[in-house]
């Protein structure tokens, strides 16, 4: 499994961000290989993250190249470049 975190900043209000996230959620649910996605509020004002759990690096890479992934900065009016990190899950604490 692959864990990917995408951190970003936006000037949208949290209410606007959540409305957009809920509207787009069905498209994310349909992504092959996406096990789970968490929508995260970070510590600073306007700072959020998407945390993705993928079944494989191939699924994560396919998503990164997709129209849906490429539309994220515009949809959430991202300020600056998003910060992305990923790594392989060694083992889960709970099954």
What is the mean pLDDT? 96
Which CATH C-level class is it? Alpha Beta
CATH topology-level name = Alpha-Beta Plaits
User: Main sheet: which strands, in order across?
Assistant: 2-3-1-4
Low-confidence stretches: none
What is the H-and-E element order? EHEEHHHE
What is the tally of beta strands? 4
Strand content range: 35-45%
Total separate domains: 1
- Share of helical residues: 25-40%
Give me the secondary-structure category: alpha+beta
- First-residue to last-residue Cα separation: 13 Å
Largest sheet: 4 strands, antiparallel
Q: What is the CA-atom radius of gyration, in angstroms?
A: 13 Å
Globular, elongated, flat, extended or rod-shaped: what is the shape?
globular
Tell me what the structure shows.
This protein has 95 residues and is an alpha+beta fold. The protein has one domain (2-88): Alpha-Beta Plaits (2-Layer Sandwich). 34% of the residues lie in helices and 38% in strands. It contains 4 helices and 4 strands. It has helices at 14-29, 57-64, 67-70, 72-75; strands at 2-10, 34-41, 47-54, 78-88. It has a 4-stranded antiparallel beta sheet with strand order 2-3-1-4. Strand 2 (34-41) and strand 3 form a beta hairpin. The longest helix is centred in the first third of the chain and has 16 residues, at 14-29. The chain is globular, with a radius of gyration of 13 Å. The protein starts with a strand and ends in a 7-residue tail after the last strand. The model has no long low-confidence stretch (mean pLDDT 96).
Quick structural overview:
The protein is of the alpha+beta class.
